[in-house]
Please model this.
Amino acid sequence: ATVSVLNCNRGAMTMATVALAAAVAAAYEVQNLTLWDRLTYAGDATDTVINWVLVAFALAPFLIGSGLQRRDTAVCVVGACCLQGALWALVPWCYGVSLVWCALCGASCAAQRLHRRPVFSAALVSGSTAATALGIAYYLSMYPFVTTAAHVAAVVVGGGTAWCTVCPRPSKEL
Model:
């Protein structure tokens, strides 16, 4: 088997990010919310701190001792997780970065589990997974179930992103 890596063209990724940013900015204006409102949970200090700490935990496997053969592959996975989180900004009353930390956790778990050799530090993946589980449990106890459903869906999307980009594929010999 060979490792198939998504060809991530930085120029295309940059253009897609700019287009998405413009769409998200337009959506913010329609909903009378600023980017700052979204990133700080409309000024809620508790949610802001919880979510940005969880983002740090979720990013740790990608940034510290990543075994991915190509650093730009890690950038693509992180970028894809952030893009799916940003797309939710188009939905009224969706705030923050919780879908990003959920997707990053799913991506690191899938890459670690599906790859033939360890991709990330097992301790970092375990720490990220534990932090994500605690975050999801906290939001399950504090917010309507639809929030938890979105978090779990984001974990699955992140796992699928990793599966499509960094996991080994059998080579097709002719």
